[in-house]
Amino acid sequence: MKAGKTTHFVIRKARPEDFSQLMELETGSFSCERLSPRRMHHWLEAPNGILLVAVAADATRHVLGYCLAFTRSDSTVARAYSLAISPAARGKGLGRLLMEGMAKASKRKGCTAVRLEVAKNNTIAITLYEKLNYSTYMSLPEYYEDGQDAWRMQKPLN
Length: 158
Prior knowledge:
Helix content: 25-40%
CATH architecture of the domain at 9-115: 3-Layer(aba) Sandwich
Distance between the termini: 36 Å
CATH superfamily of the domain at 9-115: Gcn5-related N-acetyltransferase (GNAT)
Number of strands: 7
Number of helices: 4
Order of helices and strands: EHHEEEHEHEE
Strand order of the largest sheet: 1-2-3-4-5-7-6
CATH topology of the domain at 9-115: Aminopeptidase
């Protein structure tokens, strides 16, 4: 993908054939708190999972990003668990579109809000979430396995 070139893509539900590309994104995006191959397989099939991908609309159909959320039968709050965008596709609005798609899917499943955690030093993600109307409501000291602090944020689904 060339910088400066308009990229076309499709947001859709992840499929089993996306697995290897999802794992590449996972290992390339996170140094800790990674989804294991077993958990990624689980979320591809789980009825309470919302796993969306952004796929290049060209002949490659390459997975450029993904968003994972899940719901619980005893809660009306969906949990946005992971968002990863390939380095070559960052800054093109994929994160926003994936998060908006996940919120719509959560609402269709009966959820009234989406909750997430984000590292306090991840200013790019925090800025995105704030633009999407997420509010910070809790500090989580040493939340991540590498000792980083996090914010818990939530967005109502109106």
